[in-house]
Amino acid sequence: MVAASEDSDIDDEIDALRRAFVERLPTRVTALIDAMAAVDAGADDVSKQHAIGEVGNVAHGISGSAGLFGFHELADAAEALETACEHSDNQPVEIPDLVDLHETVRMLAAKGS
Questions:
Q1: Rg (alpha carbons) of the chain, rounded to whole number
Q2: What is residue 91's three-state secondary structure?
């Protein structure tokens, strides 16, 4: 029975990490939106590239964590944004799914699951 108890403890820890991820999502999406605004406001190529890199980094973090915790639609949307950043060539990053990404995050946070 020790194995069942250990499995239960691990499941509890994973559930706690999943809940913490969902609780932090609104903050991470706000950071993503702020970084995207910085891309549009970039006065020169260097500042735009830095902002695009920040968008990609935040999207990468969301994508990886979302996939780990079973939020595959969210992971896919964030991965698409990260890929767009990698291929942006200092151009504004426009991903139509960003609204969907934000709505998905809002719904997950509201559920608290």
A1: 17
A2: coil
